[in-house]
Design goal:
heterodimer, A: mainly alpha, 0% strand, B: alpha/beta, Rossmann fold, 4-stranded parallel sheet, 15 helices, 53% helix
Chain lengths: 101, 320
């Protein structure tokens, strides 16, 4: 069972970087991603938005395997800044999981 | 086992914190390219290399070793490696393994750029051994604390030297300084332009018409983040070279795979292979404008098609 992490939910809420509110789950990002990772980025962002930290941590290698190439954001009809969101997740994991800042 | 993300990022951040670069190189290796060019030291406008071109031969030697570790039981020793690296600069040994021919190759590209700027009558200097790496990789990996401290050091270096304009040579350094620094360094307002932008604005004219047949690979960072799309095309249009656009080009360019080299080498090579196929379909030899794209695509092409830095083509046509 996944548990909601208030710590992560708060970090996302207080962040001026992470913002996926405009995402309408159309899937264009997944379709144009050169990596072809189904998780990136919309499923992952949904886990973040509802505070499922365990699920996010299960996908650490996915988070670091994003190329930050920006093809997704370039084609996102809702103009979500996807690479910035991925970078926010790296920062969160670096600080809370890897003890790196 | 995949390569251990935590330990690799730790080594890169430790290096940046302790030695002011993710992969610290000697001042001689960083400035060797400028030998004999008589570039003035400092000045209001400086050519800032950010060390990326100089680092590629070392990264190349290193990534060959890293790829052997991927999926090997030896990955568990990376934690130990991180501890050793705190006391001994392991990049120094990797630098010794770098190919001399490759170093000459990348040094020549920087010389091309400096000579093109001179030809365009741009008045600029160079900070030589004082120049620091930009911090781009640590920013991308989200190690923001280390990046913020380093960005301040880099900004102080420019301020101390009275720099008012910076000319960059690669997309990652351009983006880091122009777009990221103002978010991290209070009051950072130095004008930053890529050499391609400076040359395109200068009105420089070619001295030779060339017959090169090129498949142009746009850098993701230049095209999507820094709006550098038209400038290389405008410079090439005057030269007579035939420019072929791949199916994915301009703002919709396809990544070279390079950003994954340090953590996921085999995935990086897969993406590079896909891009090489697209560029081959367009026809001609491949021209890149980023040293990371260059090394990634060259490796993936395995000699099946020539891959060159755009500065080589421009140097030939503009007579430097």
């Amino acid at each position: 069972m996944s548990r909601v992490s208030s710590k992560m939910a708060l970090a996302v809420k207080c962040s001026d970087t992470f913002n996926a509110d405009a995402c309408m789950h159309c899937g264009v990002c997944t379709a144009v991603c050169p990596m072809g990772i189904e998780m990136l980025p919309r499923k992952l962002f949904r886990y973040v938005q509802i505070g499922l930290e365990d699920k996010v941590k299960e996908n650490i290698s996915t988070i670091y395997s994003c190329l930050l190439c920006g093809m997704c954001a370039e084609n996102c009809p809702a103009e979500v800044n996807i690479a910035d969101n991925v970078r926010f997740l790296r920062k969160y994991i670096n600080e809370n999981e890897f003890n790196l800042s | 086992m995949p390569l251990p993300t935590k330990d690799i990022l730790g080594i890169l951040a430790d290096n940046l914190n302790q030695r002011k670069s993710v992969l610290p190189i000697s001042s001689a290796a960083a400035t060797r390219w400028a030998k004999g060019l008589d570039l003035p030291k400092g000045g209001k406008t400086v050519l800032y290399t950010g060390h990326l071109y100089q680092l590629i031969p070392i990264i190349d030697a290193m990534s060959g070793q890293m790829a052997k570790f991927e999926d090997s039981a030896l990955t568990k020793y990376f934690g130990l490696g991180r501890n050793v690296n705190k006391f001994i600069n392991m990049t120094f040994f990797m630098g010794m393994m770098a190919s001399k021919d490759e170093q000459k190759d990348y040094d020549r590209m920087l010389r091309n750029i400096a000579l093109l700027l001179k030809k365009a009558d741009v008045d600029f200097g160079y900070l030589y051994g004082e120049e620091l790496y930009s911090g781009a990789l640590v920013y991308d990996e989200g190690v923001d604390g280390s990046f913020a401290k380093h960005a301040q050091r880099v900004a102080d270096m420019f301020k101390k030297n009275g720099v008012e304009k910076i000319i960059t040579v690669d997309p990652h350094t351009t983006h880091t300084l122009r777009t990221v620094f103002p978010e991290f360094v209070k009051g950072f307002d130095i004008e930053v332009k890529s050499y391609l932008e400076v040359l395109a604005e200068s009105g420089i004219e070619p001295t030779n018409q060339i017959t090169d047949d090129l498949s142009l690979h746009d850098s993701c960072v230049y095209a999507r983040h820094e709006n550098v799309v038209e400038q290389p095309r405008a410079l090439l249009a005057k030269t007579g070279a035939k420019v072929n656009e791949p199916r994915l080009c301009g703002k919709n360019t396809h990544c070279c795979g390079g950003p994954l080299e340090s953590l996921f080498p085999s995935e990086s090579h897969r993406i590079a292979g896909n891009r090489v196929e697209q560029l081959k379909e367009a026809g001609g030899s491949i021209a890149t404008m980023c040293p990371i794209c260059l090394v990634s695509l060259r490796k993936a092409a395995k000699g099946s098609v020539k891959v060159n830095d755009l500065s080589d083509t421009l140097a030939k046509a503009y007579g430097v």
